Amino acid sequence: MKTALITGITGQDGSYLTEILLNKGYTVHGLIRRSSSFNTGRIDHLYNNPEILNKKLFLHYGDLTDTSNLNRLLEKTHPSEIYNLAAQSHVKVSFEIPEYTAEVDGVGTLRFLDAIRETEIKTKFYQASTSELYGKVQQIPQDEKTPFYPRSPYGVAKIYGYWIVVNYREAYNLFACNGILFNHESPRRGETFVTRKITRAAARILLGLQNNLSLGNLNAKRDWGYAPEYCEGMWRILQQDEPEDFVLATGETHTVREFVKETFSWLGIELEWDGKGKDEKGIVEKIDRELLEKRIDWSENIFNLKLNGKIKKGTTVVEVAPHYYRPTEVDLLIGNPKKAKDELGWEPKVRFKELVDLMIEADFKKVLQRGY
Ligand code: NAP
Ligand code: F7E
Fold first, then answer.
1. 218 FRET partner, CA 20 to 30 A, in 98, 114, 240, 323?
2. Whole-number pLDDT of residue 293
3. Distance, CA 169 to ligand 1 centroid (Å)?
4. Contact, 287 vs 312, CB < 8 A?
5. Could you tell me the CA-to-CA distances from 115 to 66, 74, 123 in Å, in that order?
6. Pocket of ligand 2, candidates 16, 84, 91, 319: which has the most ligand atoms within 8 Å of its Cβ, to mutate?
7. Ligand 1, closest atom to CA 190?
8. Shared-domain flag, residues 124 and 171
9. Residue 101 sits in a domain of what CATH number?
10. How far apart are CA 146 and CA 133, in angstroms?
11. Are 217 and 310 in contact (CB under 8 A)?
């Protein structure tokens, strides 16, 4: 029976990867950090299942900034595969806490690799590398050979993680791989990342719980895929005979503005854009009330929420707040997943429109069920 150790198990990817590995028959150990309030929301459905907790899924306190328990944890759990997903993963926040980001995302990776080297356990190591390494892109589309040019303390910290994986692989013959993953989203995405911020806000605006949505750079382009498919890709990367690095991406790119437009469009609201830069606004152009009513499953509406009567043609629902601009931006990301397709048989199925639709549908449902 295979045993996996996942850092960042309480995050978006950690939760999906745990489900995938449990379904494949793995025993899963997860590293969680102590928090003053519950931080297991994304894995509670597994955690609260007595058939799973402490039988197939085990949680251990730890932190990537703390070396003291890593060796002990490895010796105790003896994982055949390790997925290092823990990170301070917010790019904008990394400008505010650059040193902490470097400690967790950069040196944290070294701490783990070195614990493997010291304990001499036989294992495979997956590192959550990122398209943020490409930053100011040197080639379009980006693949495994594209030179890096990170544009944030997050990207710079992750570049250390990337290269220390390559170095430990070459120097000590460790089975260690980088998955260079482009943005991947889901209904479990953290609420401060742009996709989730948009879908949650649109649902709340329509139900009268929020007046409008403030965003930063609407022109940024991202290659957005569906998180569960990317987590399956992580597993495939570690099933290879030789350790190698892979790009996972859709090969399509869209602006933040397009994401907003598609989100509102699912709700039957067509937006038009007026102004430029910080003065740009998203204004309601047309409302398809029939479609809107059709989208909402009122049987979920336990808080008796009503549709926002104030929304009509001409209402501003999106504004730009320069506060969300980044000191240095990544303008365009588009990945080339050819190597993953050829060697792993990995291909993304959920495309942009389907991704937006499933996220806004899930957020609408959540707001109706929770009332906020
Ligand atoms: P996420 O939702 O932000 O989850 C991050 C996880 O790391 C959480 O479980 C968090 O714990 C944990 N963590 C943070 N600091 C830690 C520390 N000091 N010690 C131990 N655990 C810590 O991120 P994600 O979207 O799932 O991404 C997973 C990984 O892939 C990250 O490394 C991210 O940088 C990378 N990545 C993500 C994407 C993407 O588009 N999602 C793309 C490329 C790479 P709490 O729950 O307690 O906060
Ligand atoms: O921003 C723009 C913002 O924060 C996407 C992380 O998972 O993917 C993620 O990093 C774009 C940027 O993701 C807002 O300026 C506009 O250009 O959703 P994001 P990210 O920075 O791409 C990579 C691959 C990772 O590795 C990271 O861990 O959207 N944007 N207005 C905004 N972004 C946010 N967050 N909030 C806004 O209001």
1. 98
2. 85
3. 23
4. yes
5. 12, 8, 11
6. 91
7. 2
8. yes
9. 3.40.50.720
10. 10
11. no
Mean pLDDT of the chain: 97
CA of 109 to the centre of ligand 2 (A): 22
Q: What is the pTM of this model?
A: 0.98
**Residue of minimum CA distance from atom 33 in ligand 2:** 194
Q: Does 345 map to a domain?
A: no
Q: Looking at the CA of residue 35, tell me the nearest atom of ligand 1.
A: 47
Domain that holds residue 291: 194-220+256-332+351-370
Percent of the chain residues topping a pLDDT of 70: 100
Given a cut of 90, whether residue 309 has pLDDT beyond it is: no
Regarding whether 36 and 157 lie in a shared domain, the answer is: yes
Q: Is residue 90 part of a domain?
A: yes
Closest residue by Cα to residue 280 from 251, 265, 260:
260
Please give the helix or strand (H or E) that residue 230 lies within, else none.
helix 227-238
pLDDT digits (tens, 9 = 90+) for 127-175: 999 999 999 999 999 999 999 999 999 999 999 999 999 999 999 999 9
We report the CATH number of the domain holding residue 210 as: 3.90.25.10
| Residue 216 pLDDT | 98
**168 and 236 co-located in one domain:** yes
How many folded domains does the chain comprise? 2
